[in-house]
Amino acid sequence: MQRICGLVWPIVLSVVLPLVAAWFAYPETHLPPGFGVFPPLLVAEAPGFNLIIFVALALVEAAVVLFLLFPQWFGFTLPTPSPKPAAAAFPVWFWFGAALTLFFLVVDVDTGHALWRLGVLRLHAFVVGLHPDVGRTGISS
Predict the structure, then answer these.
(1) What is the pTM of this model?
(2) Structural domains in the chain (count)
(3) 117: domain range?
């Protein structure tokens, strides 16, 4: 319960705090004039292009991209890669699903109009062939 309250209280505050401020700012209606009126009586014109704001935001975005692409430039160290596991062969159910998927891909190319009918079967062949839980549901590897 404490975990749920920790997630809910910021949402509740983001709704309640503006209403409390509006209660004191607009003593007659407790909401701004024209609030809830649809369609709006006056639509403000969009502001024009501002080169200074554009350049400032572009620089901030470029800094974020550099931080994400090159974290070592900002003092982070790259982790040492873990040793690679030994290569293993694909299980039998993988080859079964791959064969079915390739078969229905080839069949779909020639039929054209029947693409929607075979698409469902192709999806099932892919799921049967690649899903790791299939071995537990009846198809042995």
Answers:
(1) 0.36
(2) 3
(3) 92-137
